[in-house]
Design a protein that fits this description.
This protein has a domain of 101 residues. It contains 6 helices and no strands. By secondary structure, the protein is an all-alpha fold. It is elongated. 80% of the residues lie in helices and 0% in strands.
């Protein structure tokens, strides 16, 4: 047997051992979480089971657009990483919770017009619903100011500085604007 084939065999055996560990961990998680998921499903009622016949897989597919739009919201939010995380996570959680919950309460099966209306219309509505929640959390984190307020203050300070520099340059150059008038007190003509 060649040295290369022995190394390949050892590598394959090592990967097979790791794969069996992953499979056994997944089975253990299913054994532990199975009864809890069954109880939760029973507590939510038969309509919830109708809305998500595939169980967790259907719930995940329902939440993926909300998670994606939450990530976009987080990326577009000004501020530090914490501000971005708060905005994105709030948008994703409120969106997934409200659209999935409404779909489950109404028992809207996947692929029906009601389910599509809930996913699209509810997704847009929850975007508006999550905005005040994330805004309040961001103000709480920012000491009363949201990242948008801080950005606005920075922009106003920049504009104020530009105007002051332009007025100073006009005064010092002797090219007084008719709008400024005579800053030295009078016309000596």
């Amino acid at each position: 047997m060649a040295i290369g084939s022995v190394a390949a065999l050892m590598k394959a055996l090592n990967l097979a051992g790791k794969l069996s560990k992953v499979k056994s961990a997944a089975a253990a998680t299913q054994r532990l979480a199975g009864p809890a998921l069954t109880k939760a499903k029973a507590a939510m009622g038969p309509r919830f089971t109708q809305a998500f016949p595939g169980g967790g897989k259907d719930m995940l597919y329902s939440a993926l657009p909300d998670i994606g739009f939450g990530a976009l919201t987080g990326m577009m939010t000004p501020g530090d990483l914490g501000d971005k995380f708060i905005a994105g996570a709030t948008d994703a959680a409120v969106g997934a919770g409200l659209t999935g919950g409404l779909r489950g309460v109404m028992g809207a099966r996947p692929g029906t017009a009601l389910s599509t209306a809930i996913e699209y219309g509810g997704g847009m509505a929850t975007g508006f619903a999550s905005q005040p929640v994330s805004e309040a959390l961001l103000r709480l984190k920012g000491g009363g100011l949201s990242p948008y307020d801080k950005l606005q203050q920075e922009q106003y300070a920049g504009i104020r500085q530009q105007v002051e520099e332009e007025v100073y340059q006009q005064l010092m150059a002797g090219n007084r604007s008719p709008y400024i008038g005579d800053p030295f007190g009078g016309n000596y003509g």
